[in-house]
Amino acid sequence: MLIGLTGGIATGKSTAAKLFEQHGIPVVDADVVSRQMVEKGSEGLRKIVNHFGKTILNEDGTLNRKKLGELIFNDSSLRQQLNHILHPLIREEMNRQTTHLLKTNQHVIQDIPLLFENKLEQHFDLVIVVYIDQQEQIKRLQQRDDISYEAALSKVKSQAPIEDKKALAGIVLKNHGTIDALEEQVKETIQNHF
Ligand SMILES: CC(C)(COP(=O)(O)OP(=O)(O)OC[C@H]1O[C@@H](n2cnc3c(N)ncnc32)[C@H](O)[C@@H]1O)[C@@H](O)C(=O)NCCC(=O)NCCS
Ligand SMILES: Nc1ncnc2c1ncn2[C@@H]1O[C@H](COP(=O)(O)OP(=O)(O)OP(=O)(O)O)[C@@H](O)[C@H]1O
Description:
Subcellular location: Cytoplasm
Largest sheet: 5 strands, parallel
Binding site for ATP: 10-15
EC number: 2.7.1.24
Number of strands: 5
CATH superfamily: P-loop containing nucleotide triphosphate hydrolases
Shape: globular
Structural class: alpha/beta
Distance between the termini: 8 Å
Bound molecules: dephospho coenzyme A, adenosine-5'-triphosphate
Catalytic activity: 3'-dephospho-CoA + ATP = ADP + CoA + H(+)
GO cellular component, one term: cytoplasm
Order of helices and strands: EHEHHHHEEHHHEH
């Protein structure tokens, strides 16, 4: 079974993914793969530099993620351009890792922040959404990334509304409570739906 895990930025996807892994379900994480795809010397980084220029590099030649983030979270056209460059590379690598894992695991989760935005739901047997309301989402994002309300809001607005994602979910994991409360829902999901 191939399971999609999604939600909004900072709603708790990585936290839920870690819990699924602790309960024996392997997770392929799009954010992790996306970092692999832009490592120094990679095809992805070369394409980004060709498009956005050398100013998005740090002095040591690695990607300046903060700078690229400031560009793409404030400009939907630049965001689309970056997505166009990176998403095919990310999808291909995620599918490669997933095929490998499915040889020895009955269930594999793909953690994809933009699963619904990229209309990928038809590829999954089940889609799980990690949900908190937008107010809490902005609060957690501000805390985690140490950013202003405005900066958090523009990151949130660069994705589809969390309420829309909740409505499209096969299963909703509510993450307003403690991590233990989230873990209970993860265990229940594995027992009853996997
Ligand atoms: C812009 C980049 C360099 C910023 O890096 P940074 O280390 O600050 O953030 P990180 O990669 O950890 O992403 C944090 C969260 O931002 C959100 N996010 C990332 N990219 C995007 C995007 N293109 N559109 C909307 N939200 C996004 C996701 O919820 C993600 O979980 C990086 O996010 C990136 O390369 N994005 C493009 C690739 C992509 O779309 N990744 C999302 C998974 S497919
Ligand atoms: N139940 C919870 N109670 C309090 N804080 C939480 C809870 N779940 C997650 N958090 C915190 O909220 C922040 C966002 O969680 P997490 O990083 O798992 O979100 P994410 O959806 O993976 O974000 P991104 O889209 O940026 O990858 C983190 O600082 C995390 O520690």
